[in-house]
Amino acid sequence: MVMDKLAGMAVFARVVEAGSFTAAAEQLGLSKSAVSKAVSALEDRLGARLLNRTTRRLALTEVGRAFYERCARIVSEAEEAELAVTRLQDSPRGTLRVNAPVSFGVLHLGPALAAFMPRYPELKVALEFTDRYVDLIEEGVDVAVRIAGDLEDSSLIARRLTDNRMVVAASPAYWTRHGRPRDPEELARHACITYAYNRNPNEWPFVDADGRRFTVRVDGTLHTNNGDVSLCAALAGLGVVRLPRFICGPKLASGALEAVLEQATPPPAAIYAIYPHNRHLSAKVRVFVDFLKARFGEGCDWDHPPGLLHDLAAAAE
Question: Is 0.70 topped by the overall pTM?
Fold first, then answer.
């Protein structure tokens, strides 16, 4: 009913501005009879004549003139509101709410903003790091980075960025003291640093060369819910870690950590950008997801990750 009223007001205002039913019909893409009926229905609903019609011209009545002034204002505001939404959809602006796991966020996503944000000066970013599960719809998150083997929430769009490559590693000093395992089962006799957010933190999964999946029971003296803490412990020689390469890659490249059992790799997982399903994807979400894909997509070298120092230096110039 409200929409019918607004439509009638818009047609009436266009008739007044165009000066005739015929011209208004052409501008609105309607038939002349449809325009005439819309104005007549509006007059019937109001119980007042708005226009005096003759064969040669239209003239506003006193009531019609007062009503037109208000209609024109309402139509103008409606058009401005529609334009504002269109602009928000067409160019990145407003606030982009982003969620990511703590380690990935601190190591990679935070520094990456130095390259992203200067491109879109009208965009604000609200960035939250947490390792808990976040309901994007309930918590109003626009985009989240998730690391998983499978994504089950069909109400979300998931864009795969790249593999999440896992490695088993320890410091050279640890391997010198305890020896390197030749197969995953030998990890049972090593001090393993376990991660609290794994479903079964003491069960490390592997895939052998034939594609067979199996798990190995491990144990150790350190159990933590943060990958960076696990990395520090491994660097100190406290034990063996199973970590994403995006956390430990630079330490592998420098030789501070040494990987083992690479012939029996942990099962594959992936890094995703996820966002709520929406038929009209906003520009701010689109450009950010495209940025993540370009920066962290296939071929990303986690041993020499992009922009940890370069972007910060560039932003300071």
Answer: no
